[in-house]
Design goal:
two-stranded parallel sheet, 154 residues, single chain, mainly alpha, Double Clp-N motif, globular
Length: 154
């Protein structure tokens, strides 16, 4: 990894990266985006608890992401992309995801580890695209979410 440090990622944070790539594959995305990372964050670690505390469950996130991203591509295109990437086994991070990881790596550069709640903070701080729409549609108060993340982070 060049710009960000996977070696600082906790086991749960690494699991989130893998889950996000699987989620992107499942949805037929050609790249792993912030929405896939957000969905993976809702499934494991401290971020899952924090998201639930503001009323956002894994099931809700999956449903919202599926609905919002299915408008962007047809089923046959999604199926073709999914077949291709299942053969290669690799789903690359898109630019938004790379920026999130770079932000979190810089934010935590003097610390020992990067955990799931740091990735969630990175999504909130940097992504104004689909994740902003996801939070808005699910009536998540971002200031409350940030406060909970900062309180958890200490």
């Amino acid at each position: 990894m060049t710009q960000y440090e996977y070696q600082k990622f906790t086991q749960k944070a690494l699991m989130v990266v893998m889950l996000a790539q699987e989620e992107a594959l499942r949805l037929g995305h050609k790249e792993c985006g912030a929405e896939n990372i957000l969905t993976a964050l809702s499934a494991t670690g401290h971020s899952s608890e924090i998201l639930k505390s503001v009323g956002l469950s894994h099931k809700q996130l999956r449903s919202t992401v599926r609905r919002l991203t299915s408008k962007a591509s047809s089923t046959s295109l999604r199926d073709s992309i999914t077949r291709f990437f299942r053969k290669s086994g690799v789903v690359q991070l898109n630019e938004q995801s790379r920026q999130i990881f770079e932000f979190v790596s810089e934010f935590r550069k003097n610390e020992k580890s990067i955990d799931t709640h740091h990735l969630l903070l990175g999504i909130i701080e940097l992504d104004g695209g689909i994740t902003k729409q996801i939070f808005s549609e699910n009536k998540v108060d971002l200031e409350s979410l940030k406060a909970r993340l900062h309180a958890f982070n200490g």
